[in-house]
């Protein structure tokens, strides 16, 4: 902005104008000039622009006018045109390649989608087939289990019938001159092979290794025979069961009517007690000597008061010696009585006067008045008190997996395992 101040002064004389005194110098920088008129003289003062109050300009001011096309074209050189054309061509080529790749990718994805649908359909078909097959297998397994159960029941019934027939035949057709007739009128006490000081038999008495040996030598009658275990000094009388298939069973225990008490001490169970023709325990020493001379199996026959009969057979039956408290060893089970004795495997023998059971705070043998392989206390007990009635639970002779009630009769017998 430009400002002007003028001061006019009339001259007194017509001669050359006198110099006018300039006004005081302003704060801002300024320039002044004097002009003379006819009657007056004028002084003009112009202040200079203070640039410190103006904003700094970072770029030169450009014209807002758009250049003409002709003028713009004149500015493009031939090299620039060629470069732009080349770039456009490269972009078009790249774009075309991407389009081709995109089409190939879409084609591949479509093929994969078709394959995936086929795989899903195939999987669903297999899944349906497997479900149907699994249901069929389950149905067949249920049928097989039912058939097995029916077969087991028939086998048990057939076995019981066969055993009953054998017993009836023995009663009806046994020869009156056979050894069984005269023996029933006798009492043959159980003897211990380990404590016999003098063998009480004649030289003509036949001696066998066990009852299987008796059967193999042609003897067919169930009776008392003398057997001599391998490591004993004298033979002992035993009852050989020739009626129960496959014959040749050596009896180690029998309960019939309860006339013989089985509440015996350690020494009696060690040596044996009773009558081998009636009720008896063969003796732990005898059982030890017999079962350690060969591989034996154990058969247990059980009767209830209703006349039902079942059995259990255990492979590899033996007991250890007195030093190991006649520890029990039995193997695999088969039969119709269900497995109760197998749970006693590995247990030591206890009597009312010697506690070797698994219950440290309880004396099972004393409570149940019997010698047996007690755990805490038992799953089966065949040497317990005899009650002449069935409605006695968990107290007398019992085989829990078959019945918890008192049993009427029991037999334990051994035979060498067939080789």
Provide an overview of this structure:
The structure is a single chain. With 419 residues, the chain is an alpha+beta fold. Among the domains are: 97-171; 242-416, Gamma Fibrinogen, Chain A, domain 1 (Alpha-Beta Complex), CATH 3.90.215. It contains 7 helices and 15 strands. The chain has helices spanning 69-75, 78-173, 179-183, 211-216, 266-271, 284-291, 364-368, and strands at residues 30-36, 41-47, 207-208, 223-227, 236-241, 249-255, 273-274, 280-281, 296-303, 309-319, 328-329, 333-335, 380-381, 398-399, 409-416. Strands 3, 4, 5, 6, 7, 8, 9, 10, 11, 12 and 15 form an 11-stranded mixed sheet that branches. A hairpin with a 7-residue loop joins strand 5 and strand 6 (249-255). The longest helix has 96 residues, at 78-173. The termini are far apart. Residues 1-33 are annotated as: Disordered. Its main location: secreted. It is found in: Secreted. Residues 202-418 form the Fibrinogen C-terminal domain. Pfam families: Fibrinogen_C.
């Amino acid at each position: 902005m430009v400002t002007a101040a003028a001061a006019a002064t009339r001259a007194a004389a017509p001669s050359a104008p006198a110099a006018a005194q300039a006004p005081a110098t302003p704060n801002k920088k300024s320039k002044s000039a004097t002009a003379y008129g006819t009657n007056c003289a004028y002084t003009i003062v112009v202040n200079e622009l203070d640039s410190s109050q103006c904003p700094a300009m970072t770029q030169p001011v450009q014209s807002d006018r758009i250049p003409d096309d002709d003028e713009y074209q004149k500015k493009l050189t031939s090299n620039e045109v060629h470069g732009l054309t080349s770039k456009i061509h490269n972009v078009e080529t790249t774009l075309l390649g991407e389009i081709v790749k995109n089409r190939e990718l879409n084609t591949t994805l479509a093929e994969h989608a078709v394959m995936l649908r086929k795989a899903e359909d195939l999987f669903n078909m297999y899944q349906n087939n497997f479900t149907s097959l699994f249901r069929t297998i389950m149905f067949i397994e249920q049928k097989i289990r039912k058939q097995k159960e029916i077969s087991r029941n028939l086998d048990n019934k057939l076995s019981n019938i066969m055993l009953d027939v054998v017993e009836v035949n023995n009663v009806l057709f046994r020869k009156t001159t056979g050894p069984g007739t005269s023996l029933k009128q006798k009492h043959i006490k159980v003897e211990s092979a380990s404590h016999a000081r003098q063998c009480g038999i004649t030289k003509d008495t036949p001696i066998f290794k066990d009852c299987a040996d008796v059967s193999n030598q042609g003897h067919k009658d169930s009776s008392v025979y003398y057997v001599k275990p391998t490591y004993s000094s004298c033979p002992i009388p035993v009852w050989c069961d020739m009626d129960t298939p496959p014959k040749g069973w050596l009896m180690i225990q029998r309960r019939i009517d309860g006339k013989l008490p089985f509440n015996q001490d350690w020494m009696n169970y060690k040596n044996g007690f009773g009558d081998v023709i009636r009720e008896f325990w063969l003796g732990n020493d005898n059982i030890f000597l017999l079962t350690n001379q060969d591989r034996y199996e154990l058969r247990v026959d059980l009767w209830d008061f209703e006349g039902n009969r079942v059995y259990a057979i255990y492979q590899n039956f033996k007991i250890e010696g007195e030093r190991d408290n006649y520890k029990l060893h039995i193997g695999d089970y088969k039969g119709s009585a269900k497995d109760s004795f197998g749970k006693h495997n590995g247990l030591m023998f206890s009597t009312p006067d010697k506690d070797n059971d698994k219950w440290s705070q309880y004396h099972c043998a004393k409570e149940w008045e019997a010698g047996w392989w007690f755990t805490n206390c038992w799953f089966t007990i065949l040497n317990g008190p005899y009650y002449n009635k069935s409605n006695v639970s968990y107290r007398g002779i019992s085989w829990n997996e078959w019945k918890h009630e008192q049993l009427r009769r029991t037999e334990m017998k051994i035979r060498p395992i067939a080789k």
